[in-house]
UniProtKB/TrEMBL annotation:
InterPro entries: UDP-glycosyltransferase (IPR050271), UDP_glucos_trans (IPR002213). This is glucuronosyltransferase. Keywords: Glycosyltransferase, Signal, Transferase. GO terms for molecular function: glucuronosyltransferase activity. It comes from the Eukaryota. It is an enzyme of class 2 (transferase).
């Protein structure tokens, strides 16, 4: 199958015939809709003939459904014990989330709690040298993550993936999250493009 690829030595727009890429999908195990979105993306790439592995970072240990159907390769990073209290009685905390009006203070507190959980789990993932070495040794061609999870892209840098892609499940939510958190826009970028960006 023909795929658009980045050729570092010649043209950036050259079409190359390849059998398939080795792709890593970073999927936070929290929130069924987000998990399902990235798992469906992984299955679509698998069905297209690519060699896909899904990395699940376990933020909420009660969300144990990966939603994968055809992708068989998975790697799990266990939950940081520091965030266990956040998700204690989670269903009770969130049972009125979609049905009751919430003021800005309540929303802000929930956002901060969620962001704290993401940052602590990120710390757990990025300090696990054995895990990083193991995944780096796989030599993935491309890595895919959601833009609201900045950790995914720090992780991709740490394991030295040459090309990365950002795929938002909800565009408006991603824009809102970036504004609230100060996260940058994360486009599809090649290793060469990232190098040029750093040197400007």
């Amino acid at each position: 199958m023909a795929l658009q690829t980045v050729n570092k030595d010649k043209s950036l727009n050259r079409q190359q015939k390849v059998q398939g890429y080795k792709i890593l999908v970073y999927n936070n195990l929290i929130g069924h809709s987000h998990v399902k979105f990235l798992s469906t993306l992984a299955d679509t790439l698998t069905d297209a003939g690519h060699d896909v592995t899904v990395f699940f970072s376990v933020i909420d240990h009660t969300d144990n459904k990966t939603a994968l159907k055809t992708t068989k390769k998975t790697i799990f990073a266990s939950q940081n014990e520091d965030i266990l209290p956040i998700f204690h009685n989670k269903d009770l905390k969130l049972k009125d989330y979609w049905t009751k009006e919430m003021g800005p203070v309540t929303m802000f507190n929930m956002f901060n709690e969620f962001k704290y959980g993401l940052s602590k789990q990120c710390e757990r993932v990025l300090t696990d040298k054995q895990l990083l070495d193991r995944i780096r040794a796989e030599k993935f061609d491309i890595a895919v993550g959601e833009p609201f999870c900045e950790c995914a892209f720090l992780f991709f840098e740490a394991i030295q993936v040459p090309d990365i892609s950002s795929r938002p499940s909800l565009q408006q939510l991603s824009i809102m999250f970036r504004k609230l958190s100060g996260s940058p826009q994360l486009p599809v970028m090649s290793q060469e493009q990232r190098r040029l960006t750093r040197t400007k």
